[in-house]
Amino acid sequence: MNAEASFGTVLTAMVTPFTADGSKIDYDAAAALANDLVDLGNNGLVVNGTTGESPTTDEHEKLELLKVVINAVGNRAKIVAGAGSNDTAHSILLAKDAQKAGAHGLLVVTPYYNKPPQAGIYSHMVAVADATDLPVMVYDIPGRAGVAITNETMLQLSQHSKIIANKDAKGDLWAASQIMAQSDLAYYSGDDPLNLALLAVGAVGVVSVTGHIVADRHKLMVEAMQNNDVNTAREINRTLVPVTEGIMTRAGGAIMVKAALDQLGRVGGGSLRLPLIPATDEQRRVLRDDLIKGGFSL
Q1: Quick check: pTM over 0.70?
Q2: What sign does the dihedral 113-119-125-130 (CA atoms) show?
Q3: What digits encode the pLDDT tens for the residues 30-78?
Q4: Are the beta carbons of 92 and 124 closer than 8 angstroms?
Q5: pLDDT in tens, 215-242
Q6: Mapping DSSP to helix (H, G, I), strand (E, B) and coil, where does residue 104 land?
Q7: 115 included as an active-site residue
Q8: Catalytic residue (choose from 62, 78, 162, 167)
Q9: Active site residue 113
Q10: Cα(219)–Cα(46) distance, integer angstroms
Q11: Is 50 helix (H, G, I), strand (E, B) or coil?
């Protein structure tokens, strides 16, 4: 399996639009958002990830949302289903549901909170990968999971025929370089502040939060790096710094990207589910300044 063909190269971890009171998913808005994101330059979307507030959506909602997005844009982009959990049996269920729904791949995060040993992480990932025929992108994010995937474990995982990529949010460029030098595992930047840096050491693409509004620039940056045009990639990255700062450093991705979508008059902004809360007036004011610095007219 080839990662770029399986997942795409410019992916956004899609927010989940809710009705005004947050009680239901707004599936019409989700379909519209998916189309907007593909039109903007994404050739892949992650559904039911952290930015999609997956901890607060139930199994029926997850499956229905996945079906809606696949029906909307599955012929134009790769749809990657979040199938991560800290319960292996639950992850397997999510993976099987995703395959039945028609997803193109799976994103499987490190089991969080219970902090399994490396052998447990390995067994978890393999069990999920063995449960379907879909290609798997591992998601290494120790800041949320509480435990990092070691180089040794990642190399072991890379030997599995269906585990073909890693969404890297570890913030360790040296570890990423080592794994890419010693395996065929494809790397995707899962940390917007480090997109260019990870592309520079060999990542094939990005799985982004800011891609909701700047996927067009991400696409150009990825293409520039593929063409060894580092200067162009660097200039694009400079324009992204205020946007990345505004969305990724103020109050958390889902909160701020929904605020950004709202401020820009785009579909997908609006309510969140507790324990997440909307951006404050002050946060929205600062975000507006960041978006203007990033090239948006408001």
Answers
A1: yes
A2: negative
A3: 999 999 999 999 999 999 999 999 999 999 999 999 999 999 999 999 9
A4: no
A5: 999 999 999 999 999 999 999 999 999 9
A6: coil
A7: no
A8: 167
A9: no
A10: 16
A11: coil
Q: Of 172, 84, 175, 96, nearest to 132 (Cα)?
A: 96
Amino acid at position 297, single letter: S
The three-class DSSP label of residue 191 is coil
- Chain segment 174-231, per-residue pLDDT in tens: 999 999 999 999 999 999 999 999 999 999 999 999 999 999 999 999 999 999 999 9
Question: Which residue in the block uniquely carries the two structure tokens 């995707």?
Answer: 188
Cα separation, 121 vs 117, in Å, equals 6
Half-sphere exposure of 237 (CA within 13 A, CB side): 20
Out of 27, 112, 122, 139, pick the active-site residue: 139
Per-residue confidence band for 253, with pLDDT thresholds at 50, 70 and 90: confident
* Bond prior to 275 in cis (omega within 30° of 0): yes
Token couple for 120: 């447990």
Radius of gyration of the chain (CA): 18
pLDDT digit string, tens, across residues 87-121: 999 999 999 999 999 999 999 999 999 999 999 99
Backbone dihedral angles phi then psi of residue 191, each to the nearest 5 degrees: -140, 100
